[in-house]
Specification:
The chain is α/β, with parallel strands linked by helices. It folds into three domains: 32 residues; 62 residues; 160 residues, 2-Layer Sandwich (Nucleotidyltransferase, domain 5). It is built from twelve helices and five strands. α9 links the parallel β4 and β5. α4 crosses α5 and α10 packs across α11. The longest helix has 19 residues. The mean pLDDT is 85.
Length: 289
């Protein structure tokens, strides 16, 4: 389909030029781009995510027949032929023959989510849209890495983790803190960049298990996650740069003080009519509880 091809090539060619080349209208392309996905497309994406997650969960040992059985037992209706087609499209081949070749994680190659957020940083209620990112904090020797999850409704930081390495475990710890603190319902959007940690099978599996819809920024476009960039800028200006930490322990203490004791409960946020994130959510629940 012409529009699908244009979407794949938009990072390399201007939309106006492609419209002229393909003989289509610019308005028609954008109407197609922002259309609501069909029920069939949503189901196909759901099954595809489950296939990739199951393939990695069993360490590339299962082919289409066994993956189909696993999905059926988890309540996902599917056929072996459909699973085989999805695996072929994604380049997934089970480790069950001498022709098997070792590749990076299937998610690291294939699972780059669409940008569902589309720079719309507003939310009508808590737990509709979350955003996440990783930043670094300079120490006397090396760096500490901070992973954060923010609820866009109130800009409250609901999950965070800090460590000396930037691993998948780091973002999973932040995620687990967030889901422990909040009431997660299927359909929630969680936006991030395309970092390899966010494309890992372990992290994608956590999202899948909670019914969360992953969303990712376009390649090399930090403004698609501007709310997180703004938080990190405030954190560093108001805390880290003012009292630079010498080691990981000091960095943790600074981050804890800023997020848990100041930012979430005290700092007035312009997006909340200058109320703190906790107060903004408390006012919402008092009105709609």
């Amino acid at each position: 389909m012409k529009y699908a091809f244009m979407k794949e090539q938009r990072e390399h060619h201007a939309v106006d030029k492609m419209c002229r080349w393909m003989g289509v209208s610019r308005s028609g392309y954008y109407k197609w781009l922002h259309r609501e996905p069909s029920e069939q497309a949503v189901r196909r994406a759901h099954v595809h995510a489950a296939v990739v997650h199951t393939f990695d969960r069993f360490k590339k040992r299962y082919g289409a027949p066994r993956i189909a059985v696993e999905l059926k037992e988890s309540g996902i209706a599917c056929s072996v032929n459909h699973i085989a087609r999805l695996m072929a499209e994604s380049g997934l081949k089970a480790r069950n023959g001498k022709n098997f070749k070792f590749f990076p994680s299937a998610n690291a190659i294939n699972y780059v989510s669409d940008n569902l957020l589309k720079r719309d940083f507003s939310a009508a209620a808590p737990n509709e849209k979350w955003v996440s990112d990783i930043t670094y904090i300079k120490l006397d020797k090396g760096y500490a890495y901070l992973a954060v999850i923010m609820d866009l409704f109130s800009r409250q930081i609901i999950g965070w983790a800090l460590d000396a390495t930037m691993t998948t475990d780091l973002i999973c710890k932040a995620f687990n803190m967030a889901v422990t603190r909040r009431q997660v319902k299927p359909g929630l959007i969680l936006h991030s960049d395309r970092g390899v940690q966010y494309r890992s099978s372990e992290y994608q599996g956590l999202l899948y298990d909670h019914g969360i819809r992953p969303s990712m920024s376009r390649k090399g476009n930090c403004w698609d996650n501007a709310a997180m960039e703004a938080f990190f800028a405030r954190l560093k200006v108001e805390s880290i740069y003012a009292e630079p930490p010498c080691n990981k322990e000091q960095a943790y203490a600074s981050v804890f003080e800023y997020i848990e004791l100041f930012y979430n409960g005290v700092r007035r946020h312009s997006a909340n009519n200058y109320k703190s994130p906790r107060q903004h959510e408390a006012d919402y629940y008092a009105q709609y509880a």
